[in-house]
Design goal:
heterodimer; A: mainly alpha; ABC transporter involved in vitamin B12 uptake, BtuC; globular; B: alpha/beta; Rossmann fold; 6-stranded mixed β-sheet; 13 helices; 41% helix; 17% strand
Chain lengths: 325, 309
């Protein structure tokens, strides 16, 4: 009885289906491995484990924000306010913490609370007021950026020592930050693939009409995707605060484009319904390794942008061919 | 016995052959067809509906101005045909029943009590499932696998506090694929790569595997754009639905299909139900006459047209 399904799975060519379904994820990870090998060959400094660990740590902020964006994009939406949510969250936490350890719980709670509020507003704008996601969250981007700059143009507040030490601390040689991230990505993977909520996200993104007919409460699901996105983006803002020490109004300024880049490289369809958490992780690591690569071969940052752009265009071209069949 | 008759009529419907069944020995068919027919009759005899004594359910839809009354009985395990010309309001009625496009006025009564159908999930909870005509756009997520599509309506049943059992999901999908003859039988292929008939089987299968079984299933043109073999299998799936205690509403523009499959037929014209024909009264002519002329005229002409103006 138990061996029967396994046999039938093999006989229908399970590996090829798996490869087909995971093609985009595999592509992202192949790119990552390629970059890793290339950098190791070209740069001697990169061969030290410390530098690799540093690269991984550098990928955490963008990675977390990309995971946030993933939840909205896979459900067929888009959230452009993600960077400004991280900014506001980081500033809120820095101001409330004010360099004191005992303020950490309050500051973290408030920062995540800000994310929750923004997520609820975004969700309502899209599902209830029925503004196109692109426009609604674009508006929110401006509003939040305005709030941040009108509060202060200069850096404000200060992270507490226990909080920013998180970036450097390690348990038994493994950086705490990487442990936290492993747990975070594990949870994201679980939610996206093993829960009814995750499957509903994919269904709504894949075809919201069909999902609705199957009894999925589509407006609820997309509302929830915006809330999850903003809360996770706020968490990413907190993470960035461990490196910047102070809250600045341009904390998440470049975040929007990099997260979307990571999401696209990770193989998530911007039309929704397709992509994987593992792919997005790969995509954000590709960006980090790409940065490391250009640093090590000492090419200027503009050239790096050009290469990132070319990678995106090449990948989208490949996906487009696949869609056409 | 009625199941046999239905099978035979279905056979003639599929192959366009006139088969009359007066007694088992008097099958007037060619010899080649007789073999196939024998097989089908046998199969039908084996599958004579095992009636599950279902809950009695009446769904009635009332329209504000013209009072459309439609009663779906599932105690009889009934297939209710809904015939009419294109644009006569059949799909509109189905969409209202399924909460897809809620009715602007009127009420849907279930067992005499009004139910609110604002969205499909309301209808599903009330035991009404509507499978719309455009399966590509509305019935399936084409980029997703057969497994994901089959499980989508049953996620709640497959999960505990929101966590879906991957094992149960795979089991549900592979059992469904086997039971409904979906080809290819792999559950991880994208549904978009399947043929039209197999896609339709997945759409129907999604509701057949769902527990509890739907009390009323409304099928809008289920065999449109489907090859002959798959048509036959879809008819079997309809029987399967009935056998599991669901009442089926079959909307079809193919009159022979409506006549062969239905126990009772409602005819719609210009947004109203203009006639109800029991099985014995079914003929293409009567249905068409009602559909084109509406009720009064039909009565007038059938009385000899004496006082028709």
């Amino acid at each position: 009885m138990s061996s029967q399904p396994a046999l039938s799975i093999l006989s229908v060519g399970w590996p090829s289906h798996w490869v087909k379904r995971q093609a985009r994820t595999l592509l992202a990870w192949s790119l990552l491995i390629f970059l890793y090998v290339l950098t190791t060959v070209l740069s001697e400094t990169f061969r030290s484990p410390a530098v690799v660990t540093e690269t991984f740590k550098g990928a955490t902020f963008v990675g977390m924000a990309a995971a946030a964006e993933f939840f909205v994009v896979v459900a067929g939406g888009i959230d452009l306010s993600i960077g400004s949510v991280a900014t506001i969250s980081g500033m809120t936490a820095a101001v409330l913490m004010n360099g004191r350890d005992q303020n950490i719980p309050l500051a973290v709670g408030a920062a995540l609370g800000v994310g929750l509020v923004v997520g609820v507003i975004n969700g309502l704008l899209v599902t209830w007021v029925k503004i196109t996601p692109f426009v609604a969250t674009f508006g929110m981007l401006y509003v939040l950026q305005g709030v941040a700059y009108s509060y202060s143009v200069n850096p404000v507040g200060q992270a507490a020592p226990t909080f920013y030490n998180l970036y450097e601390d390690s348990i038994a040689g493994v950086p705490v930050l990487l442990l936290v991230m492993a747990g975070f990505w594990g949870i994201c993977w679980y939610v996206a693939t093993q829960t009814a909520f995750g499957k509903h996200l994919y269904a709504v993104g894949g075809d919201s009409g069909a999902a609705r007919l199957a009894g999925v409460r589509t407006t609820r699901v997309s509302f929830a995707s915006y809330v999850v996105c903003s809360v996770v983006a706020a968490a990413a803002g907190l993470l960035e605060l461990t490196q910047t020490y102070v809250g600045t109004p341009d904390l998440g300024a470049t975040l929007l484009l990099t997260t979307i880049t990571a999401v696209v490289i990770g193989g998530v369809s911007l039309f929704g319904g397709q992509g994987s958490v593992i792919g997005v992780l790969g995509g954000s690591l590709v960006l980090a390794f790409l940065g490391q690569f250009f640093d090590s071969v000492q090419v200027n940052a503009f050239f790096q942008q050009l290469i990132e752009g070319l990678i995106i265009l090449a990948l989208l071209g490949i996906y487009r061919q696949r869609v056409k069949r | 016995m009625p199941a046999v008759r239905r099978q035979v009529r279905r056979f003639s419907l599929l192959f366009g052959v006139d088969v009359q069944l007066d007694g088992p020995d008097e099958l007037r068919t060619s010899r080649a067809l007789a073999g196939a027919l024998f097989h089908m009759v046998n199969e039908a005899l084996n599958n004579v509906r095992k009636h599950t004594p279902a809950r009695r359910v009446w769904i009635r839809l009332e329209h504000a101005d013209d009072e459309i009354r439609m009663t779906v009985r599932d105690d009889a395990g009934e297939v209710l045909g809904l015939a009419g010309l294109v644009g006569s309001g059949r799909t509109r009625l189905a969409n209202a029943l399924g909460g897809i496009r809620p009715a602007r006025a009127g009420a849907v009564l279930r067992n005499g009590r009004p139910i609110r159908l604002k969205r499909p999930s309301d209808a599903i909870r009330a035991g009404i499932v509507v499978i719309p005509e455009d399966r590509k756009r509305e019935g399936l997520i084409l980029a997703h696998s057969v497994r994901e599509n089959l499980a989508l309506a049953s996620l709640k049943e497959l999960s505990t506090i929101g966590m879906v059992s991957a094992k149960a999901e795979r089991r549900l999908a592979s059992e469904a694929v086997k039971a409904f003859g979906v080809r290819p039988s792999a559950i991880d292929v994208a549904t978009g790569t399947l043929s039209g008939g197999n896609q339709q089987k997945v759409v129907l299968g999604k509701w057949l595997v769902r527990k509890p079984a739907a009390e009323v299933v409304v099928l809008d043109e289920p065999t449109r754009g489907v090859d002959v073999g798959a048509k036959y299998e879809i008819y079997n799936l309809i029987d399967e639905l009935v056998a599991r205690g669901s009442g089926v509403v079959l909307i079809s523009s193919e009159l022979p299909e409506v006549i062969a499959m239905s126990d009772r037929v409602l005819v719609m014209s210009a947004g109203n139900i203009v006639g109800e024909l029991e099985r014995g009264e079914l003929s293409e002519e009567r249905i068409l006459r009602l559909a084109v002329l509406g009720r009064e005229q039909e009565l007038a002409t059938s009385e000899g047209g004496g006082h028709a103006v």
